[in-house]
Write a structure and sequence with these properties.
- The structure is a single chain.
- By secondary structure, the protein is of the alpha/beta class.
- It is built from 6 helices and 15 strands.
- The strands form 3 sheets. A 6-stranded mixed beta sheet has the order 3-6-9-12-14-15. Strands 1-4-7-10-13 form a 5-stranded parallel beta sheet.
- Strand 14 and strand 15 form a beta hairpin.
- Helix 1 packs across helix 4 and helix 4 runs antiparallel to helix 5.
- The protein is globular and about 40 Å long.
């Protein structure tokens, strides 16, 4: 069973998948901790998931993520032909194609899974969720960084396409069917073809608040605070 093979191949890593330069500063996880974290991420994000056992047995997206983690380990340790072969076998079996050279962070969730394509130079942060049919592709550039970078806590809706060496900011959402061709700032929702910002998740009152200059000059920085929540 490929799921069991993934566990055996990952056993030697005892480390987290890199997600940017800060990855080296993160605590290393054991295999058991990594697998448990991936399962819990699915339980937290998928309302149809009723138990950890069902997630392990039936969640196609989770199986694809575990297959990727094994293949990425092989790729990083020089077994690139084997990693590519296993990646293609996963594509045929699960309908999800993740290049083993891609960099994916922790608690990555693919809901439903079918049709997802992630290119070789794609970088995905922590706590990212993709729905079915998402493509992280390129625009014709065939050298260097040519696939998107997704920040932390990003959600990408079904059939969305993100192309080229662009960045999706932390906490942002990409609507279903959107085609994203340019950088997306933090904490916004984009939708449409081509995609544009349709909602901002940051404090909507920020632009309306102002502070009197005299007060600013006299007030202590710690007492000069405002906040809002949506």
């Amino acid at each position: 069973m490929e799921l069991i093979e993934a566990g055996h191949q990952l056993a030697g890593t005892r480390g987290s998948v890199a997600s940017g330069a800060a990855a080296q500063d993160r605590p290393r996880l054991t295999l058991r901790e990594r697998l448990r974290e991936d399962v819990q991420a699915v339980l937290d994000r998928d309302p149809s998931a009723t138990s950890a056992r069902d997630v392990v047995l039936f969640a196609t997206g989770l199986h694809a993520v575990w297959s990727y983690r094994r293949n990425h380990w092989l790729w990083e340790h020089g077994a690139r032909r084997l990693a590519t072969y296993l990646s293609q076998r996963t594509r045929r079996r699960l309908g999800v194609e993740i290049h083993p050279a891609a960099t994916i962070g922790r608690r990555f969730v693919i809901d439903h899974g079918t049709g997802v394509v992630i290119g070789a130079t794609a970088v995905i942060g922590d706590d990212v969720m993709l729905y079915q049919g998402v493509t992280l592709g390129m625009t014709g550039k065939h050298a260097g960084k040519r696939h998107p970078t997704l920040g932390n806590n990003v959600m990408v809706g079904a059939r969305a396409t993100i192309l080229g060496d662009i960045r999706i900011g932390n906490g942002s959402k990409v609507g279903a069917g959107a085609v994203v061709l340019h950088d997306v700032p933090d904490d916004v929702t984009v939708a449409g073809v081509p995609a544009s910002v349709v909602r901002e998740h940051r404090c909507w009152e920020a632009g309306r608040l102002s502070l009197v200059p005299d007060v600013v000059a006299q007030a202590d920085d710690e007492n000069l605070r405002w906040s809002c929540s949506l």
